[in-house]
Amino acid sequence: MAVAEAYPTIAPGDHKAFMEHALDAARRAPSGPDKFCVGACLVDEDTGKILSTGYSLELPSDRPGDPGRVHAEHCCFVKIADQHGVEETRIGDVLPTNTVLYTTMEPCNSRLTGNKPCVERILGLSGAIKTIYVGIREPDTFKVVNSGQHRLEKAGIRMVFVEGEGLQDRILEVSMTGHGKKQ
Ligand SMILES: [Zn+2]
Q1: Distance (Å) from CA 71 to ligand 1 centroid
Q2: 159, β-bridge pairs
């Protein structure tokens, strides 16, 4: 866990390439009918340096004081916090000024399990992330209507959908791995 992962640097602004990186992470997520396989990465938008990468359930779900499945975005935050020895809510102190989040699926806004949704975690970073690049909207598989974009935009955080040839289809396919239909 303590071993620092090596992340590539991608040309700044190559949103599709960063999204492909997040999608590669999503492919490593354990699949099942009751969850989505999501990947995410935090990026220094000025340099293109990837700061951390995460995927659904990558980290153990028994973090002290914060039980429950760890979503991809949350995983990215935890890794930065651990790396710098700061609280998750304080990672804005150690992140570059223009840090952006790429995630294959829009951040969750409510969780059936009662865990803190990723939208709230992002809002809790006090402006450390001002832009979120998103692959696809959250499917309504779990009867969730995600109104997170509105909440984020009210707080001045942009949500930008990254379009690419076949990109959305591939993200959806990976997201729904293990759901037992399609494919
Ligand atoms: Zn989430």
Answers
A1: 5
A2: 132
1, 14, 85, 159, 167 from 172: Cα distances, Å: 29, 21, 35, 18, 9
pLDDT in tens, the chain (183 residues): 445 678 989 999 999 999 999 999 999 999 999 899 999 999 999 999 999 999 999 998 777 767 778 999 999 999 999 999 999 999 999 999 999 999 999 999 988 777 899 999 999 999 999 999 999 999 988 877 899 999 999 999 999 999 999 999 999 999 999 998 544
Domain ranges of the chain: 15-175
Ligand 1 centre and the CA of 95: distance in Å? Answer: 20
User: In angstroms, what is the span from residue 38 Cα to ligand 1's centroid?
Assistant: 9
For ion ligand 1, residues whose CB falls within 5 Å: 71, 108, 118
What is the pTM for the complete model shown? 0.93
Q: Which CATH superfamily is domain 15-175 in?
A: Cytidine Deaminase, domain 2 (3.40.140.10)
